[in-house]
Amino acid sequence: MTWLLVFSGCTRQEPPIKVDLSNKSQIDLREEGDVITYAYLPQYSHTVSYQRHHLLVEYLCRETGLNIKQIFPDTFDQHMKMVGQNKVDISFSNPFIYAKIVHRYGAKAFARIVENTSQDKFRGQIICRADNPAIKTIDDCRNKSWIAVDATSAGGYLFPLGHFLSQGIQKEAFKEIAFAPGPGGKQEKVVLSVHAGKYDVGTIREGTLNVVANRIDMNEIRVIANTRSYPGWVYAASSGLSVSIVEKVRNALLKLDFNKGDHREILAAADFLGVIASDDKEFDSIRELARRVGISLEE
Amino acid sequence: MNIWPVKLGFRSKIYVGMFSLLLLLGLVIFFLVARIMKESLLEENKNRGVSLAVNLSARMVEPMLAMDFLRMKTLVDATVRLSDDISYTFVMNHDQKPLVHTFKGGFPVELIPVNVVSNFQRYSMRLLDTGDNLVYDYAVPVFVGRDRLGTVRLGLLTTRIEKTFNRIMVSAFLSTLFVILIAVFAATFLGRPITRNIKRLHDSTERALRGDLDIHTAPLLKKNCWDIMACSKTECPAYGNLYHRCWYMAGTLCPTCVEGDYAGTITSCQNCTVYKKCAGDEIQSLAESFDSMILSLKNNLSGLEQADKTLKKQKNLLRAILDTVPDFISLQDRNGVYISVNWAFCKMLGKTEDEIIGKTTFDVFPGKKAEVYHQEDLNLFLTGEPLVKENRVVKGHRTKWYHLVKIPMCEGKGQISGLLCSGRDITELKRVQEQLTQSQKMESLGQLAAGIAHEINTPLGIILGYAQLMLEEGDDPAQSKEDLRIIAKQTKIASKIVADLLKFSRPVESVVSVVDINQAIEDVVSVVEHSFNLEQVVIKRSYGAGLPPVKGDEEKLKQVFVNLLKNALDAMGQGGVITIKTYYVKQMQKGRLVVSVSDTGQGISSDNMKKIFDPFFTTKGVGRGTGLGLSVTFGIIKEHGGTIEVKSPLVSERDRGDAQGPGTAFMVHLPVGNGL
User: Fold this and answer.
1) CB–CB of B109 and A24 under 8 A?
2) B179 in any annotated domain
3) Which tens digits make up the pLDDT trace of B244-284?
4) pLDDT in tens, A103-149
5) What are the two backbone dihedrals, phi and then psi, of residue A13, each rounded to the nearest 5 degrees?
6) Together in a domain, B293 and B162
7) Residue B639 lies inside a defined structural domain of this protein
8) Is this complex scored with an ipTM above 0.90?
9) Residue-range definition of the domain harbouring residue B241
10) Segment 324-353 of chain B within 8 Å of chain A by CB
11) Closest CA in chain A for residue B166
């Protein structure tokens, strides 16, 4: 029988490579020294975050001569905590998170972006399914289920919440307020949840629909309302980062010119048109909004 | 030499052949299926490994970006737990440094370089030998966009695929074996009746070879023809015959049967109800036809035995006759080899039959004689003409005469296949014949003496007269010369008469020479004419001109003519005409001379006609004839290869000549150029 099986098993096959598995060693992943960490608030998946910013990080390395490395915190909270722990030296976050890390950990804004809309500010969007006959206007959102990006999301929660409040719609008016499950990709999850019909209303940052345009038919999503504009995404340095490094990074960012061929690719990948100088005062409106909607920057 | 199949029985050959065929077929299918199966399993395993690795690679992007070792570790551990045959997984960063793995007690560093996948490959697979196991190692790059983050490696043990393969192979093998066994059982079930019938046929054949023809090979039928046809014709050969089928029998009495040869009857029988109900398969049909063939053989053998008995009886009878007959008889084939001889032939040669059969003339007879006989045989084979002759054989002081007849034996389209020789010892007959001839000569001489004496006396008287005249006249020389001339002439006449008598009366051996037949007749007539004239018998001559000579003994031929003339004289008594005619008759390639001697006598009665050539038969008075004349004449003519015929009374003018009475004509036919 053995002979039979051996004979019958004759097939064309390459000879095996001998490997000694007993020759073992322990993994040693030592961190490199003098690394400047760069983190993009994980409003999207890490893959999207990487794809959007790895060219920019490489550009900053080349431009500043610094060893800058992009890291990927899983959640907004983790992002903020890592800023506080100086594990994130350069934070690229929404203005609301910025307001928090300023308030909590003393981070300091040094630049902010110009949106693809050529605006240096951005806004939130309130969306529903295009075929939802019960929602025509903002008032129709009452007694509906609402999914937001995150309790700390500016464009995906705070801006729309402020907008609802300004329209006289309190949080209690909603049948349900839910947040997208983490980690990562939370903006897309809101769109997908509304598209799937699980929630009636969703709130996202302006521009998110473009991100998911290749996944769903955009004609099936309808924008009910846009919030007012607030200062856009901001670059902030952790409190532990030296001023000289901050200056090098800021200068390099400010040098980015969409009209330059090599810069255009970087900026296109990062999904903004350019970077302008900024300081903390420009984000008072955010702090005012937080106060108005009753959210503490300590939370 | 592969001789064992020859010794196997038919059944064993069928089984061995079928088993071998099925085994071969099964093995071919088995190995073919095995190969396809293994390649399919390998392909499936490869696809499975690739799928697992690619999936892990896709899921590894986020944790690798986040450097979330917990999630990476969770993913690799979860992947390994998916199946027992997943030996390991590990993840390397873009610097080929392991990030997480599933090994215990450290990472086996030799794994890293053995399977490297480039950025342009979807995956890379290598078969690794770890010493304990064979592992298919899959390397899949981890990409985010176009940037490579690292590599996922996954090891699949071959044990699962081997187990699966072995399980399938065992199942296939057992299935093949099962099918073969089923086929063998089926072949046994179906083949047993065939082999049993063939064995019965074989046994029957052996019995037939041993001479036992009471064989019944075909099985008995449940219903026979008389049952099916409700027949009561007990005289029908098929009725009650349990062992032979009616369609193989001749002379059956069924109304549906047709007469004729087997081919015709069997065609008719195949449409018969009996045939349709009783005919079996080819083997049964073979057994039935075999039985009929044996029956036919038995009948034929019985007939042959009877014929053989009759033949032997006749052969013995013929042999007895041949051996009893005093004549010697021999039979030679086309090559002159003796096939059969009788006792007399053996006795003549002084040899046994075994010493002669199978031998040729040269083996049996001495040299010169054998050469003569051989030439005779060759001539006979060439011409086809029978040979009749008398042989004189001298043995010491004894002389033997044999009368021989050689006749060609023909078969088929006249082709000569052999030579029959019959002969008898005629020494005694010859002696008596010689004596008779001599006696007859003497008798003839006695009867002619008076005439001869008168003939001689006439010239003697003349001689004497002229001699006396010469003595008396003596002076006239012219007269004397004339007288002397007459005397000389008369002396020559007398001398010739005497010489003829001497020649006629002296018994001589046959001396063959070329004979002018007209001259020979004239010699005889000149002797007897004077005495015939005294009886007022006139001899008329009508000799054919330019006749070819014949070969023979002239004196014996003259004896023939003397006898015929004397017979004619005796038949006429006082007065009459004897007419002698000679002429040539051409027949086919050969010719013959005919000598006709006719008289005007009283003729021969039909009763006497049959006896005239018998010895001692005579119608003459006592003391006037011995009755041997025509008998001797017949013998001499026969000796010359001729024939003699007699006609009486004469009817044609040619035969009658100038005859006044009924007359008789003897016609001697002599072959030209063929004498003794």
Assistant:
1) yes
2) no
3) 888 888 788 887 787 776 767 777 788 888 888 888 887 78
4) 999 999 999 999 887 888 889 999 999 999 999 999 999 999 999 99
5) -155, 145
6) no
7) yes
8) no
9) 225-304
10) none
11) A5
